[in-house]
Amino acid sequence: MRRLRAFWDRTFDVRQGERLRTLFVALYLFFILFAYYIQRPVAEALFLNRFKTENLPDLYILIAVAGGVLAYLYTKITVQASLERAVNWAMAVASAMQFVFWWLIQFDLPWLIYAFNVWVKLFSIVMVTQGWVVASNVFNPREAKRVYGLLGAGAVLGSACGGSFTSFSVHHVGERNLVAICVLPVLLAYSAFRAAISLKGVLLATAKGREDEEAGFSLRDIAVDLRRHRHLQVIVGIILMNYMVDVLLDFQFKAMAKSAYQGAQLTAFFGTFYGVYLNTVNIILQLFLTAAIVRWLGVGGTLLVAPAAISVVSTASFGLPSLGVATVAKLTDAASRYTLNRTGMELLYLPLPAERRNRTKAFVDIFVDRAGRGLGALLLVVLVRMMKVPVRSVALFVAGFAVVWIVLAWRAKREYVLTVRKRLDARRLDLESSRLAVADPATLALVEQAARGGNARQACYALSLLADAPGFPLEPLLRDLAASPLPEVRGKVYELAKGTRFAGLLPEALRETEPSPAYAYSEAVVAAVRYLLEVSPDAVPLARGFLEHPDSRVAEAALCSMTRAGAMAEVVTCDWITRAAADPAPDRRRLAAVALAACGDAGTEALHRLLEDKDPSVVAAAMRAAGAIRNRAYIGALLNRLPDSQFRGVAIEAL
């Protein structure tokens, strides 16, 4: 058991206090996807068993229009409702609708098959999205980067189990009864949600069913953004091509499946395809290839993989029309869309300002997705109904759109780099807000270039970004920049090295603090002192040396650092405070007051003398120390300083 836990901790960085939250949210996603992948094969098989493939474009258009309107209305409603209330209502409606459709399916009503397919699509949009909204409120951004992989694994496992269950059980219980069975995983998902929000530290009282900034946008603002920014034009163009290709490939796939299977066999085939084939490919891509491909190829290269593969497979589908080739084409599109393409698109969004990014995503989710599917469906109406184009020839149009997609992906790389450069120059590039576990090498290269540049503020900002970038080798860069001529940069280097407890800069930090002819006080000196006292194994001897440093600012930095490091009692003794309080140099006497504020006045009467000192800076420091110590013995001295305008503010604060 101990070895198993050690392996788990090495593989998944889920920390104490996060485990139950991760478990229950993962279970929510597992059961929701389980229910969805029962309903989806059933709905699609019912449609194909009842109608001709020529009716599929009508269904695509209906889903695009009705699904878009319903999803938009749901979004607007949930912005006003609390997250808990939104989940409660969604679960109740979902459970009730399963029974309604279970009862109505027995009457074999044509319109009902269309309605059921629209419902299944809406179920996936609302319930799955709601799960990730719950996760975003249960975990903060740093936690999310570590646990979202496990949550995604729960969703993938639920999809696989749901599809496999459908494939196995449809021959025993029938398609109609599978619809009623979906109520059980929905209720189990709701139980997992209730368990998650009951945990200590999970507060959803103020959480909304959807964030305002994600749900709200103005079409006028979107139009202005699209007109001004080529980056956004490329994003919308890629998504349109993606969903048009998806509709065309889906039509080919279902037409081939209908010609090969009928009745429950068709439902079982769809269950196996969605549950086993698609999720197996998704797991392989997500766990083993996506991060590596992003590191190797960057944003542009990652976005090129899907259309390039689809164009090749579609050409093969035209030459060798069969269910096997159509299945490979559908797998290529569906698997890459939820792994490589999604990661590439998230990275493409990353350099945009947060407000513009949120409203663009909302616009894309509500309109562009449906517009792409609707355009694809209208094209199928023209090709299949009007022009009587054979199913195999649709593959040529898929390949043509894939070529346009490739051109847009190539253009995206250029626009992405330009946007990153602009945002970096303005010090407004935000890597921390992203929940991605991978980073684009082009972005990191630009940020590293800025970190090595001659602009101190920009270099410090770039170093902060790189410190938060997952997988970036920060230590070699810190070694190089420890020799930077810019003190602000060196200070940032020591700050980051202290935060990561990197001991490779100890010699450089010591040289930074040595009182030599070349010594010059700067923020780098203060950062070096803090770094040394936190990381060096010789922190106590170093602290004693810093207290005797000719520059009192170094000694003060050491005092503040020792407060954090816990070495104060060992270094700052009553004898040292007494000697410093009696020193003829005002800076040394002020240091004594700072030390008293940190470690207290036990065993010494030095603070009384310091409160009566002739130097104003010493008196001010002593008054602050009296306020920090909270000893009533100093109230009289503080009250005596109230009439003096020079000390009135400090005295009031101390009192």
Describe this structure in words.
The protein has 655 residues and is mainly α. It has three domains: 17-422, MFS general substrate transporter like domains (Growth Hormone, Chain: A, Up-down Bundle); 473-571, no CATH class; 577-655, Leucine-rich Repeat Variant. The protein is 79% helix and 0% strand. It is built from 30 helices and no strands. The chain has helices at residues 2-11, 19-50, 56-80, 83-104, 110-138, 141-181, 183-197, 212-215, 219-228, 230-260, 263-319, 323-337, 340-349, 354-386, 394-425, 441-451, 456-468, 474-481, 487-500, 506-513, 523-535, 539-547, 552-565, 568-571, 574-581, 586-599, 606-611, 616-629, 635-640, 648-654. Helix 4 runs parallel beside helix 6 and helix 19 runs parallel beside helix 21 (523-535). The longest helix is centred in the middle third of the chain and has 57 residues, at 263-319. The model has no long low-confidence stretch (mean pLDDT 83).
